[in-house]
Amino acid sequence: MRFDELARGKDQLRHNACKIITPYGVILDMDKLTNVLTAISHPTRRAIISQLANGPARFLDIAKPFNTALNAVTKHLKLLERAGLIERTKQGREVLISIRAEPLREVAAWVHEYERFWSERLDQFEQYFKDKQEKKEKKK
């Protein structure tokens, strides 16, 4: 076996190991999900996402509201870009940064799966106590 075949096999194994199946059978890629959750975990990055929700902006326009070094804003943007939450497009001399909402939809879908799971469990729990109460009232 050649080294490149071994490396590809290892990458494939790692890729497959990062898949999760939610309680309702939805398969999600944990690497993407982890990157997005990491990206939105910091308040500065969430503020940048909120700012970009109003429309594309230049780097300096994004950095302006923050009392931090431009280098720090660059790092935040790189992390958001790695997670697929932003994209850069060149228009003439300017580079505009805009939001990509699809990764956030994937996080919302993941959260929704667990919301359904726990809602059903809580409904069953509630029904158990209602049934128990009815049995108690019938005995009286």
Protein model, in words:
This protein has 140 residues and is an alpha+beta fold. The protein has one domain: Arc Repressor Mutant, subunit A (Orthogonal Bundle), CATH 1.10.10.10. The chain has helices at 3-17, 30-39, 43-52, 59-63, 70-82, 102-139, and strands at 19-21, 27-29, 57-58, 86-91, 94-99. The protein has a 3-stranded antiparallel beta sheet. Strands 1-2 form a two-stranded antiparallel ribbon. Strand 4 and strand 5 form a beta hairpin. The chain is rod-shaped and about 80 Å long. It starts with a helix and ends with a helix.
Brief overview:
The protein is an alpha+beta fold. 65% of the residues lie in helices and 14% in strands.
How would the global form be characterised?
rod-shaped
Task: Work out the radius of gyration.
Answer: 23 Å
Helix content: 55-70%
Contiguous runs where pLDDT drops below 50 for at least 5 residues: 1-17
Chain oligomer state? single chain
**Major β-sheet strand ordering:** 3-5-4
**SS element count, helices:** 6
Strand content: 5-15%
- CATH evolutionary superfamily: Winged helix-like DNA-binding domain superfamily/Winged helix DNA-binding domain
Q: How many independent structural domains?
A: 1
**Number of distinct beta strands:** 5
Assign the CATH class.
Mainly Alpha
Structural class: alpha+beta
Output the helix-strand order: HEEHHEHHEEH
